[in-house]
Design brief:
30% of the residues lie in helices and 22% in strands. The chain is α/β, with parallel strands linked by helices and 235 residues long. It has one domain: Spore Coat Polysaccharide Biosynthesis Protein SpsA, Chain A (Alpha-Beta Complex), CATH 3.90.550. The strands form 3 sheets. Strands 1, 4, 5, 6, 7, 10, 11 and 12 form an 8-stranded mixed sheet that branches. Strands 2-3 form a two-stranded antiparallel ribbon. It has a two-stranded antiparallel ribbon with strand order 8-9. Strand 4, helix 2 and strand 5 form a beta-alpha-beta unit. It starts with a strand and ends in a 10-residue tail after the last helix.
């Protein structure tokens, strides 16, 4: 059984308001994406890492790797117009055999802990999938607006935040991605479910944030600074 990781980094930085794609912005002096790749490049954790980037950003990434002396082993493939197509391109770049598992992770989630990656791989090998989820961190009352304009209360305790990496039996996930894109596909778990498979939830870590806005970067710097010896994570 091989363990694969597909790290999807197709962001443009529009919401962030940056002059460059957010995956290349510095986090404690090192591009965010390098932190992310390094988490999966820990010894004996992952057999092969694929980084999916917009075609126009691939050379920039190679230049950054040379500039920072970044040598973590990985392969780069061009993404598509949607995240769905980008993940599909990543899957097609893998030499999958029965029993292999594949993790799909957001390139701008650099705070994932290697121990949580290991737990997700282990759960997916046993259950066919592993989807990290965390209790919704909100103290306000919530209501759902219905099509007729009325609202109804939502029980906060029943809500979960869905995180990545989402890990799957690689053969089943590739088959699921053979179907046409549907707007309902908000993540890999929804694609997997649409193919008739059941997802297996596992405990997620709310510190595993997705960096989409400037305040997220500030928070990520604070979290990393509080992790002794883990502020660079470059092999």
């Amino acid at each position: 059984m091989k363990r694969y990781a597909i790290i999807v980094a197709g962001g443009s930085g529009t919401r962030f308001g940056a002059a460059m794609p957010k995956q290349f912005l510095p986090l404690l002096g090192t591009p965010i994406l390098m932190h992310t790749v390094s988490r999966f490049a820990q010894p004996d954790l992952c057999d092969h890492i694929v980084v999916v980037l917009p075609d126009a950003d691939i050379q920039r990434w190679h230049d950054l790797c040379r500039e920072h002396g970044f040598t973590a082993s990985h392969h780069v493939v061009a993404g598509g117009d949607t995240r769905f197509q980008s993940v599909k391109n990543g899957l097609n770049a893998l030499e999958i055999t029965p029993g292999d598992v594949v993790a799909v992770h957001d390139g701008v989630r650099p705070l994932i802990r290697p121990a949580d990656i290991e737990a997700a791989f282990t759960a997916a090998a046993q259950h066919g999938s592993a989807i990290p989820m965390a209790v919704f961190p909100h103290s306000d009352s919530l209501r759902q607006q219905l099509p007729d304009g009325t609202t109804r209360p939502i029980d906060r305790q029943s809500l979960r935040v869905v995180l990545t990496p989402q890990v799957f039996n690689a053969t089943l996930l590739r088959e699921a991605y053979a179907r046409p894109f549907d707007p309902r596909f908000t993540d890999d778990a929804t694609v997997f479910e649409a193919a008739g498979h059941t997802i297996h939830p596992i405990e997620g870590d709310l510190e595993n944030i997705k960096i989409t806005r400037p305040d997220d970067l500030v928070r990520a710097e604070r979290i990393l600074a509080e992790r002794p010896g883990q502020n660079t994570q470059q092999p």
